[in-house]
Amino acid sequence: KVRNGPEASLRRPPPPLDRRMRQPVLAAMLLGLASPSRGASLAAARASRALRVRSGRAFASASAVAKEPRFITTPIYYVNGQPHIGHVYTSLACDVVARFSRLDGHKVLFLTGTDEHGQKVEQSACKAGESPQDFADRVSDTFRALLPLYDFSADQFIRTTEARHKEAAAALWSALVESGDLYLGAYEGWYSVRDECFYTEEELVDGNAPTGAEVEWVAESSYFFRLSRYRQRLEEHILANPDFIGPASRRNEVLAFMRDGLRDLSVSRTTFSWGVPVPGPPPPDGLSHVMYVWLDALTNYLTALGYPDTEAADFRSFWPASLHVVGKDILRFHAIYWPAFLMAAGLPLPKRVFAHGWWMNEGEKMSKSVGNVVDPVALVQRYGPDPVRHFLLSDVTFGADGDFSEKKLVESSNAKLANELGNLAYRTLSFTQKQCGGAVPAPDAFSEDDLQLLAEAAALLPQLRTHVDSMALHRYSQGVSGLASAANRYIDVQAPWALKKSEPARMRTVLYVLIEVLRHLALYSQPVTPRIGAALLEQLGVPEGGGRSFAAVGEGSALQPGQPLPPPRIVFQRIEEVDEAEGGGEAPPPAAALTAALTAAEEAALVAEVGAAGERVRSLKASGAGSEEVGGAVATLLELKARLPPDHELNAKPAKKKKSKAAKA
């Protein structure tokens, strides 16, 4: 069940455990690596219980408690235009919740699709010289194509032109007739064809819709839904269920909109024919009515579950919907009209509607006329799905407006995916391959630092669960990044490369801890960056199946000493530069991105960092440090130099010195 709750910040790691936990036999028992005596077993049990308590019971199996099924939906996308980055953003949010929920033991149905009726579609088809059905078929395919491009794991892709949907929409209309909530009248007022929405005089802004769309005066015969009848019931429901609309700012907007009452809603049109015909006997006005596109479109959530058969297996399992994710511009339809229709039809209301913000481009609203619309297909072909997914769900507070920037996308990918996670994995696994025979090392006694990091890794799951359930999706990547940062600090402090001769048992223990933390990072990465998560799990020799679900979090599924590890490889390459002239290409591996121009102050600061990094390399070499430590310092130096302009003097290659004849002799 999706619940809202306080956005729990990452708590500090649990305090170190009793020193008795550091005994080798107890540490091994905690990870299932030894068979102790009865006395030792009791001591280990007490120690294990202490570890569970102090880590927030993080080692408990994710499937220990029966989980409710989750029905997660995007709005169905209107086929009057091509997909844009906003469509990707909505689908991505749903995909992350769906993936997390499946890994966490929930049965999930993730629905998306296209809305294909209405006056705007009819007009667009006419301009394109196509029939409305042919036009809808063609554009719907462009939305469907986003699923594999972005690794969206939708279970159903629904279209409102399907026969099953027309049957469901007609059934809902009949239910509204039976409830006495439909009546025939005449509508006269402002209507936006682009928005497929009616507006009052008071809502217009400079003669246009609040969205900026043009409006036209419409006068026609229409059926009306008695929306006014449901204002009080709907307001009471919203107030009694604070999680029903999120975030809180959007909930307040809906309540404010309803404060002065709700007007009955026109729910049929007679001036065009591309829609679901109104069922029943011919109306008294003798005109042919089609259903208002929003009443038609919203019904898709029921269609996908088998409605009007409310005894269908999917309907019984998944309705009411757990979560509708929508853009803030269509919140009114989902938070007012949709629940009112359901109340009238005697159906349960969805558990939650969450509205996210809009994406700007470099501070400007995206517009075809300005030429700054982000093409989601070209974007994913350039960078691959994981970098785009990670950026969109980590850069901006989910629910607020965001500013899209390819520069920030590249910087975020390099800092978090390539350096923080990818470099950690490659350093650890490469060193393990060389020093431990390409197998999981056997740990010796765990130190307090070891136990603290292991506990922190397992304790992250309930925090991530809170972030997903509260739709604080931006905090998810931040949480995973926090664990990766802790692991990087750990490897720098423990310095396993310095232990290989003096303390080989300690070296193996440090590597074991790092490999276990990497396993957790791989598990947690799967909802947002599924390709990176899968690649890292493969690097750790974790087969597909239950070992990749959240039931594997904690000690019960720890990697066993001696388990072979595949040859290490880089799970994510740095993005170096982008050739703006290229229009795309294959998906991963991602192409490179141009380094943005630095200000004088930024360049001076970066030059200072390069100088300090170079000094560290020289110092390590002079002190006789091991090749692994020197190599890490050199990698940092090269990374900093790569951020300088290509023609900077620090990037200039030194001229080769010609040997003198005397030297040759």
What's the quaternary structure here?
single chain
CATH topology of the largest domain: Rossmann fold
Helix content: 40-55%
Radius of gyration: 29 Å
CATH architecture of the largest domain: 3-Layer(aba) Sandwich
Biggest sheet character: 7 strands, parallel
The N- and C-terminal alpha carbons lie at a distance of: 82 Å
What's the CATH superfamily of the largest domain, by name? HUPs
| Uncertain stretches | 1-64, 579-597, 653-665
> What does the overall shape look like?
elongated
Number of distinct helices: 23
Mean pLDDT: 83
Q: How would you classify the helix and strand content by structural class?
A: alpha/beta
Give the class-level CATH name of the largest domain.
Alpha Beta
State the domain count: 3
Please state roughly what percent of the residues sit in beta strands, choosing from under 5%, 5-15%, 15-25%, 25-35%, 35-45% or over 45%. Answer: 5-15%
- The total count of strands amounts to 16
